[in-house]
Amino acid sequence: MNKPLILVVEDDSAIRNLITTTLETQSYRFHTAQNGNQAISETASQNPDVILLDLGLPDMDGLDIIKKIRTWTNVPILVVSARGEDRDKIEALDAGADDYLVKPFSVEELLARLRVALRRMYFSRTADAEKAVFTNGDLKIDYASGCACLKEQELHLTPIEYKLLVLLAQNAGKVLTHTYILKNVWGGAAETDLASLRVFMATLRKKIETDTTQPKYIQTHVGIGYRMLRQENKL
């Protein structure tokens, strides 16, 4: 089986060489692009498994690239950028990015984030075979019957808790911003709804987490949103 193909979009030659050398040592295949037009062209022609994307490119902003790519593919996009403010992360994630890594970064963290993105790609591509039932460790969601179980015990969820759980499950491994969740669960993003989101997320966690201080399933990204963590499924 071929190793996954990674598209590296970076105009800084030193960082681009660091990333490609790292990928080469791990036997990943890769293509490179140095501007936005090349990135869009390479994505369309090469169909990469993951895109590593810098936002500060010479011909167009990375946010515009994400939006264009999202019109035809759900390929995982890992932003690697010097822009480290929460606002920048939120804008990228809302535009359709899957994860965000701030420069300077460690090689180990880059590879770890890449593995997460590849797992999400794998689960997304195998979703058709499992789309009736979502399984993540001891958690199981039967979409057809509209019920969720933990360790084979049915969870008694409110309609909002169930919608939150399903939204997170359908995007497992991806950071979902508060705005994205509010739009998809409540249909809006009023500030008053953010408090409701936190309350419902807290009650949902109490029902699915053994220890809410060390969550296995729902990870908080402070000031940004939430992510469902992937667990090993039971055989």
Automatic annotation (TrEMBL):
A Pfam short name: Trans_reg_C
Location of the protein in the cell: Cytoplasm
SUPFAM superfamilies linked to this entry: CheY-like
All copies of domain OmpR/PhoB-type, residue ranges: 131-230
GO BP terms in the entry: positive regulation of DNA-templated transcription
DNA-binding region of this protein: 131-230
Modified residues (4-aspartylphosphate): D54
GO CC field: cytosol; protein-DNA complex
Chain coiled-coil ranges: none
Residue ranges constituting the Response regulatory domain according to the UniProt record: 5-118
Biological role stated in the UniProt entry: May play the central regulatory role in sporulation. It may be an element of the effector pathway responsible for the activation of sporulation genes in response to nutritional stress. Spo0A may act in concert with spo0H (a sigma factor) to control the expression of some genes that are critical to the sporulation process.
Protein's UniProt name: Stage 0 sporulation protein A homolog
Species assigned in the record: Parasporobacterium paucivorans DSM 15970
